[in-house]
Design a protein that fits this description.
The structure holds 2 protein chains of 2 kinds. By secondary structure, chain A is an all-alpha fold. Chain A has 14 helices and no strands. In chain B, helix 7 crosses helix 10 (191-219) and helix 15 (286-296) runs antiparallel to helix 16. The chains are: A mainly alpha, B mainly alpha.
Chain lengths: 295, 334
C-alpha cells in the first residue's frame, strides 16, 4: 500500500516514539538506580541518591554483608525448595488433571470439569483456608505454602485446551499397540506439548519465587522464611542494622550503609528472575495467547 | 455430547444440558474399567479440590457461628445466625471500608483500566518491528518482579530522598528558590497521596502485561478492512477510530464488565505492604479489614462474615453488570 504521510501523521509518530522511549526509561530506571547504588560507595548514595545513574566509588561491601547474613542464605535455600518441589507438584497435578479432562470418551468427565470450574468463581476465603491449614497440622511448615496452591484451575483448563488440540490419531495408534494411559501421557502427550509445558513450568516457578503472602501467614519459624519474607523484613518492616555483621564498616555513615545493603538485597533476590526473563518472556506471551483463545 | 458443547463448558457449566441415553449398570462398569488409569490420575487432583477448595467453602459456616480461637475447625460452635453481618454493617468502620474499596476501584477504573488499551493502540501505530518488540519486552518486565520488591521500589521512589522529591527539589531550585527552603513531602504518610501512589504504581508494574490481551486482539482484525479504508482515502486517525477501536470493543466491554463487577472486590496483598496506620482512613478496604480482623485480631467469625458479604455482593454485581451489558450490546460474559 502506498500511503502518504501527512504532517499530522509525522507529528503523531514523533510523539509516539518519544513516548515509548520515555516509557522504557521510567520502567527501567528504578531497577538501574538500585543496581548502580548497590555497587556504589555510601558517600555516593548519600550525595546523589535517586540521581545516581553511573556507579561511583565502586564497592562490593554491601554484597559481602548480604551473603554473610544467615537469613538470606536460609531464605535462598527455602525458596529453592519451594520452587523445585512446588513446581514439580504443580506440574504433575496439572498434567494429570488436564489429561483426564481431555479424554473425550471418559465417563463423568463433565462432572469432573464442573468440580474444577466452580472453584474459579467461589472459594472459602482467607479464614476458612487458614483454619484448615492449621487443622491439617501444616502450620509452620513449608507444605502450608505448597499444598493449598498445588494446582491452578486456570492452568488445568489451559493445558486441557492444548491437549484437546493434539490429533486423536497420535494417541489412538498407541492405544492399539496396547499402551495404557500413563504410557500415552508420558510417551506421547507430554513430548508433543513441550511449548505449553515450558509455559506452565515458568508460570508456576516464577509464582513460587515471588510469593510471600502464604508464607507470611503460615510460617513463624524464621529458619523457614523464604527469600521474599526476608526481603520484606529488610525492605519494608525495618530489620535492624545490627542483624548484619558490619565489622569494620561500623564507623561510616550507617544510614547509607543500610541503604546500600537494601539495594544489594533487592539485586540478589531479583537477578535470578531477570536472568531468565529474556528467555521466558516470549513463552509467557505465548501462554497468555493460548489462554485467551478459549472462552 | 459433542465436542463443541464440551468446549463451552468452561463458561457455561451451569447451563449446559446434555443428552443422555439410558445408561445401564453394565455400561457404567465398562466405562469405569476403560477409564481406570485416567481416574487414577485424576484422584490426586480430586483429593486436592475436595480438601483445599471445598472444605474451606464448607468452612464459611463459621460466619454464622460464634467461632473462637482455640476451637477446633469443624467443631460445632454456637450458631448466631446473621449476628456478625449485623455487627459489621452497623459499625462505622463498615461504611469507611466500603467507601474506600469503591474509591480505590474507581481510581483503578479511571486510570488503570484505559492505560493498557492506550498503550496497545499506540504500539499498534509503531511500524518498526524491532523497536516495538523492545518496548514490549521492557514493559512486561515489572510484571515478573516480586511484589515485595515492587513495593520496596515504590517506597524508595516516593521517600523523602527519593526520585520524586529530588525532582521537586530541582524544580524548586530551577524556579530560583533557595534549596534550604525546600520541604520534602512524606508521601506515604499523607492520605491524599495514597490512592494515586497505589494506582499509578500498579500501572507502572502492569501496563505492559495488561496490553498483551489487546495487542493479540488487534492482530486479529481483518487487514482488508484497513486496505479498503485506505483506498477510500482514510487517514490513520480515521482508521483508528473507525476500524481499530470498534475491532477491540468486544474485548474492552468484557474487561469493563469484569472491572465494574469487581468494584467492591478488594485485593489486599499489595495494600498491606503499602499502607500504614496513618493512611488507614483511605487505604483500609474490605480486604485489608478482613485480613486484620481475622489474622491479627483472631476474630475469625467476623472476618469470614465480611468475606462472605463481599463475595455475595461481588457476584451479584457481576451478574447485574453482565445482564446490563447483554441488553445494551451483544457482548457479555455468558
Amino acid at each position: 500500500m502506498i500511503y502518504k504521510r501527512t504532517i499530522g501523521d509525522w507529528i503523531f509518530d514523533t510523539l509516539n516514539y518519544i513516548f515509548m522511549v520515555f516509557l522504557m526509561l521510567i520502567t527501567l530506571y528504578p531497577f538501574w538506580n538500585i543496581f548502580v547504588s548497590s555497587i556504589s560507595s555510601p558517600a555516593a548514595i548519600s550525595a546523589k541518591g535517586a540521581m545516581l545513574v553511573w556507579p561511583e566509588g565502586t564497592n562490593l561491601d554491601s554484597y559481602v554483608l548480604v551473603f554473610k547474613n544467615p537469613m538470606i542464605l536460609t531464605g535462598y535455600r527455602n525458596t529453592l525448595f519451594l520452587v523445585v518441589v512446588g513446581t514439580s507438584i504443580n506440574m504433575l497435578m496439572t498434567v494429570f488433571g488436564a489429561y483426564a479432562l481431555s479424554r473425550k470418551w471418559l465417563m463423568g468427565r463433565k462432572y469432573m470439569m464442573l468440580l474444577i470450574t466452580i472453584t474459579m468463581f467461589f472459594g472459602g476465603g482467607l479464614i476458612p483456608s487458614y483454619l484448615l491449614v492449621r487443622k491439617l497440622g501444616l502450620y509452620d511448615t513449608l507444605w502450608a505454602v505448597i499444598l493449598p496452591g498445588a494446582v491452578s484451575s486456570w492452568n488445568i483448563i489451559m493445558m486441557r485446551t492444548y491437549f484437546l488440540g493434539i490429533p486423536d490419531s497420535l494417541e489412538e495408534s498407541a492405544l492399539i499397540d496396547g499402551a495404557n494411559d500413563f504410557q500415552i501421557l508420558f510417551k506421547i502427550t507430554i513430548p508433543v506439548s513441550v511449548p505449553i509445558m515450558a509455559v506452565m513450568v515458568l508460570f508456576y516457578a516464577v509464582g513460587h519465587w515471588n510469593a510471600w503472602f502464604g508464607a507470611s501467614i503460615y510460617i513463624r519459624n524464621q529458619d523457614l522464611f523464604p527469600l521474599q519474607l526476608v526481603l520484606r523484613r529488610i525492605l519494608l518492616t525495618g530489620a535492624k542494622l545490627h542483624e548484619f555483621d558490619l565489622g569494620y564498616l561500623g564507623g561510616a555513615d550507617r544510614q547509607m550503609i543500610f541503604k546500600g545493603l537494601k539495594y544489594a538485597t533487592v539485586v540478589v533476590a531479583t537477578v535470578p528472575i531477570l536472568m531468565v526473563y529474556p528467555f521466558i518472556q516470549k513463552y509467557f506471551v505465548k501462554g497468555i495467547m493460548i489462554g485467551s483463545l478459549k472462552g | 455430547m459433542d465436542q463443541s458443547s464440551a468446549e463451552n463448558q468452561t463458561l457455561h457449566t451451569a447451563s449446559t444440558i446434555s443428552y443422555k441415553k439410558k445408561f445401564t449398570f453394565k455400561e457404567f462398569k465398562k466405562g469405569l474399567y476403560k477409564g481406570k488409569y485416567v481416574y487414577l490420575m485424576f484422584l490426586p487432583v480430586f483429593v486436592y479440590y475436595v480438601i483445599f477448595c471445598y472444605l474451606p467453602m464448607y468452612g464459611i459456616v463459621i460466619a454464622f457461628q460464634d467461632f473462637r480461637p482455640g476451637m477446633d475447625f469443624f467443631e460445632n460452635a454456637k450458631w448466631v445466625g446473621f449476628m456478625h453481618f449485623r455487627n459489621f454493617l452497623s459499625s462505622p468502620i463498615a461504611l469507611k471500608v466500603i467507601k474506600n474499596t469503591i474509591m480505590l476501584n474507581l481510581w483503578e477504573l479511571a486510570f488503570g483500566f484505559p492505560a493498557p488499551i492506550i498503550l496497545a493502540l499506540l504500539l499498534n501505530e509503531i511500524r518498526v518491528s524491532w523497536f516495538k518488540r523492545t518496548v514490549q519486552t521492557i514493559s512486561y518486565l515489572p510484571h515478573f518482579v516480586a511484589l515485595v520488591v515492587i513495593i520496596g521500589i515504590v517506597k524508595d521512589v516516593v521517600s523523602t530522598e527519593g526520585l520524586i522529591n529530588t525532582l521537586r527539589l530541582y524544580i524548586h531550585q530551577w524556579m530560583g528558590n533557595d534549596p534550604s527552603t525546600f520541604k520534602p513531602i512524606v508521601f506515604l504518610n499523607q492520605p491524599q497521596y495514597f490512592r494515586p501512589i497505589y494506582v499509578f504504581s500498579g500501572i507502572w508494574q502492569g501496563v505492559g502485561w495488561g496490553s498483551i490481551l489487546y495487542i493479540a486482539n488487534l492482530a486479529s482484525i481483518d487487514p482488508t478492512l484497513y486496505e479498503a479504508a485506505e483506498i477510500d482515502g482514510a487517514g490513520r486517525f480515521r482508521k483508528m477510530f473507525n476500524i481499530t477501536i470498534p475491532g477491540i470493543m468486544p474485548t474492552i466491554t468484557i474487561m469493563l464488565i469484569f472491572a465494574i463487577g469487581g468494584l467492591l472486590s478488594s485485593g489486599f496483598e499489595k495494600l498491606i505492604l503499602l499502607y500504614q496506620p496513618l493512611t488507614y482512613e483511605v487505604a483500609d478496604t474490605i480486604g485489608t479489614y478482613m485480613y486484620r480482623v481475622g489474622l491479627e485480631e483472631a476474630k475469625y467469625s467476623l472476618s469470614a462474615a465480611v468475606s462472605l458479604f463481599s463475595t455475595v455482593i461481588n457476584f451479584g454485581l457481576l451478574v447485574g453488570v453482565n445482564k446490563l451489558a447483554a441488553k445494551v450490546s451483544e457482548n457479555s460474559l455468558w
